[in-house]
Amino acid sequence: MLKVNLYLFLFIFLPFALLAQHKISGKVTDSKKHPLPGVNISIKGTYDGATSKADGGFSFTTDATGDQVLTAVLTGYQLLEIKISTDNAEQLSVILRNDVNALRLVTISAGSFEASDSKKGTVLKPLDIVTTAGAGADITNAIKTLPGAQQANDREGLFVRGGTGYETQTLIDGMLVRNPYASTTPDIPGRGRFSPFLFKGTTFSSGGYSAQYGQALSSALVLESNDLPQRSSASIGLSVIGVSGGLENLSKDKKTSWGVEGDYTNLSPYYSVTNPRQTPNLGPEFVTASMNFRRKTSSTGLLKFYGYGNWGKLGFSSPSIEYPGDTESYKVRNGNIYTNMTYKENLGRDWRLYIGASFSTNSDNINTDTLIKAPVPTEIRIQSTLSQSRVMFTRNLGQFSSLRLGGEYQYATEKFSFNRTPFNYADNYVAGFTEADIYFTPSFVGRVGGRAEYSSVLERMNIAPRLSLAYKLNTLSQFSIAYGDYYQKPEPQYIRFDHGLGYMKATHYIASFQRVASDYTFRTEIFYKKYTDLVKTIPNYNNNGKGYAQGVEIFWRDRKTFKNVDYWISYSYLDTKRDYLNFPKEVQPDFAATHTASLVYKHFFPKLATNLGFTYTFATGRPYFNPNLPADKFMSEKTIDYHALGVSASYLTTIRKAFTVFVLSVSNAPGNKQVYGYHYSSDGLRRGEITPNLPRFVYIGMFMSIGTDRRQDVLNNF
Amino acid sequence: MKRLFLSLFLISGLATAAVAQSAQYQDAMLKQTSDLDSNSAVDPTVLLAKANTFERIAEVEKTQWLPYYYAAYCQVMMCFVSQDKSKTDELADKASVNLDKAEALSSKNSEIACVRSLVASARLMVDPASRGMKYGMEAGQQIQLAKTYNPENPRVYLLMGQSLLFTPEQFGGSKTKAKTMLETAMQKYAAFKSDSAIAPHWGEPYAKELLSKAQ
């Protein structure tokens, strides 16, 4: 009975015993003695606790008695549990240790600008590409407002850090795109083939990029296509130069989607009312059709297919420089097909798989009499195909580190005929790569890897080492350095005539500092790039060309200082010289400007539902070849400086249930004179300026989308 | 006999403890939830202290969805009252974790869907231009879910009215539609019967305030 009495006793008196309260107090700091506010302190198993104040102090009372466990919780810090005795728990000193999380984790950043929604701290968002005034919704044009890229607007492609457009490769979901730009006539650069709306992420790498990518001496433009859409939708577009329409369908179980898009562009009505320098004599007319299919094969598996076809014809006639009073004509008919299929899946046990395959074909039929009139007229046919397959395995090593292993195979055919005389070749290209991201600490990462390649047409292999290091100073700032060797096959027009050529080579050295907050970004890089084995065409084809590029780049973006305003400034200083092709000596090439700067400004007026934007770009004059000068004065003259001001306005509204945007944009609004260089007659007596075909381009368009609510999408943009 | 006594005592003892526990839970929750509509609840420090308290209660009462729900509510409200949007994602992540736990205990819950909608809106506010599409849609979908789970929940109409009121007219917003929606919300508040004193009951004064703006 004694025992029972004891229980009874306990139950009667326990409530009173509980009333004996103990005071718990103290201060929470991090390991560097900085006070930590907002920490949730509690006695384990009870409600009793407090939140630490601004000075890290806390104080509360508890009914618990004796030995207890005190817990302290704060995001970004490790959970702390300490044993205390309630009898003696005042002025506790609680020290929390940093926890490792994504915010503190350093990432490899030297050389690359990323536009993505999925990752925090990216420099640009995918929509920025569409909404940059003067860029005309062209990915390449928008990228040209970033440091490192040249304003070489008389030729297509990205000219990066003293490199030619050929030295930049475009990749979609890891697969190479052989002809990313529409075929056009000389001095009129082709637009990028792919709509920026197709991609959820764009990474512009101006150097030091991963061993995953090869065959690019200067730069990689890595595009990552969209996953499944949020819902089904339809869209139509109407503009002064054409019409477009699209459908996206998402299955009910949200696991499968398909989409089709088509557009038709005809520039001849526009040219007939404006006054172009070169008069169209064919088209310009383009038809594009594309389709996509995406399927979630499991919770982690995703299959994507993208198919694209484009048919275009254009031709211009312009006054002949060779034969005064005469006109010259250049016509091109182009057909392009690009298909790409990729599959990603987690294999479990820390392994991930990526497989990709693609096929593309491009044919250009060119009729021209711009060459010296020996055999009139000239007919050139170029047909290239590329089939490729790629596989990559990724293995997680520990908490953050990872290892990538992969390989790719490409089969390319290059057919070329000049007035029916063929010059054809095919190339089997095999590459293997391995790369590891090793986290020494969460704020210090190294990426080390390499790539080995073999090309059958060159009959040579190469091994390219790559190394990057990044160190995070605090949550916002980090330093990075990168080094790498890059090899690339010479351009088809040289391999075609001489099969004895070898790889061209560039070695990159980059140091960068960046500070990225949620509403501003500052970034600066210095680089040195050494070129060796460049192709020379004199005295005969050889790999004795060489050169260098070095410079400083600065980028500043600010979304904070002015209300409803977002702007960025980039500046690039470039010192580059090269001796290649038919150059008599090492000089600054005709595609490189010493100073390049851009200011992109976007201002949203909520009450008017209107966005105004302008982009101002500046570049110092570029050297040009004057055949009348002696060899020691080669490329010594420079064009006038380049100024361009693109302006755009867009008004957002709804027409019935369709979200509608009206766009007005003007490239080079003030009509500044832009001269990219000169064409000389063969006797050097006459010359013609290379200028844009129209001093300014006025674009008026309307886009409607039904189903997808894009209101918020464009609220602060366009 | 002795054993019988002992077990009887034990059972009654456990029951007493359970009742005591429950009373303690009710008291603590009532204290924390009673002033959620007051002016002090727009102070980030107050909201943080409350969120932490709810998390402490949740840590002990692992079978109750309300502490998780309220912790998430306070965390998402911190996103809205703070000017500093750099903390939003962290808070929204925490709120989502709490809502997942709440939902595991109480599925197809209209109140949880409402707070999920708020979380999506908070994430949207960080960068409306690039996040609008994804999170705007999610916010809308959660509200629709909340309405399906319980069409009588006044907070559904409050959130819909708020969205109509603050969306510019070009984008489908409308003062008149907002007014009708908020009036519905007021009617639903008047008719709404809470399961208990600590069940979600916030929003009526705010609905009234919005309604005056919609006039």
Automatic annotation (TrEMBL), chain A:
<dbReference type="GO" id="GO:0009279">
    <property type="term" value="C:cell outer membrane"/>
</dbReference>
<dbReference type="Pfam" id="PF13715">
    <property type="entry name" value="CarbopepD_reg_2"/>
</dbReference>
<dbReference type="InterPro" id="IPR008969">
    <property type="entry name" value="CarboxyPept-like_regulatory"/>
</dbReference>
<protein>
    <submittedName>
        <fullName>TonB-dependent receptor</fullName>
    </submittedName>
</protein>
<keyword id="KW-0675">Receptor</keyword>
<dbReference type="InterPro" id="IPR036942">
    <property type="entry name" value="Beta-barrel_TonB_sf"/>
</dbReference>
<keyword id="KW-0998">Cell outer membrane</keyword>
<keyword id="KW-0472">Membrane</keyword>
TrEMBL record, chain B:
<protein>
    <recommendedName>
        <fullName>Tetratricopeptide repeat protein</fullName>
    </recommendedName>
</protein>
<feature type="signal peptide">
    <location>
        <begin position="1"/>
        <end position="17"/>
    </location>
</feature>
<keyword id="KW-0732">Signal</keyword>
